[in-house]
Amino acid sequence: MTAIARITLLSMVLGLSACAVQRPEPAPLPPIPPSQPKPTPSTSPAPSKPNVPAKPAKPVPRTSASFAPPPGGNSHWDAKLGVYVLDDQTNTFYRQRTYYRWNNGWSRSVSPNGPWEDTDIHGVPSGLGRQFK
């Protein structure tokens, strides 16, 4: 055997033997239950709970993870309705390249300025249909 082959073989054997001598990590011990005295019934009134501050409301998302916002319009995503609500036009909504408008009945358009085509409740997203009847 040549010297290079011997050195290579010896390096491989030493490298692999280092893997064999590592000790496994010990198994974690189960958690120790806290030792608390058992409550006993008493005639005294229960201690009052400390005032817990209310959690702050989550901010309303401005966009949807599934639907793109309307082009060039100020709007916000309403998860309950499942559409974008246009901020500068009353009862006008947007989802998937279609604008929806409620004006004592539903109409839809490809532009926020019309022309508007009358439709029924089946032509609007389901959240809108439940909101306006």
TrEMBL record:
<protein>
    <recommendedName>
        <fullName>Lipoprotein</fullName>
    </recommendedName>
</protein>
<feature type="compositionally biased region" description="Low complexity">
    <location>
        <begin position="51"/>
        <end position="61"/>
    </location>
</feature>
<keyword id="KW-0732">Signal</keyword>
<feature type="signal peptide">
    <location>
        <begin position="1"/>
        <end position="20"/>
    </location>
</feature>
<feature type="compositionally biased region" description="Pro residues">
    <location>
        <begin position="25"/>
        <end position="50"/>
    </location>
</feature>
<feature type="region of interest" description="Disordered">
    <location>
        <begin position="106"/>
        <end position="133"/>
    </location>
</feature>
<feature type="region of interest" description="Disordered">
    <location>
        <begin position="23"/>
        <end position="78"/>
    </location>
</feature>
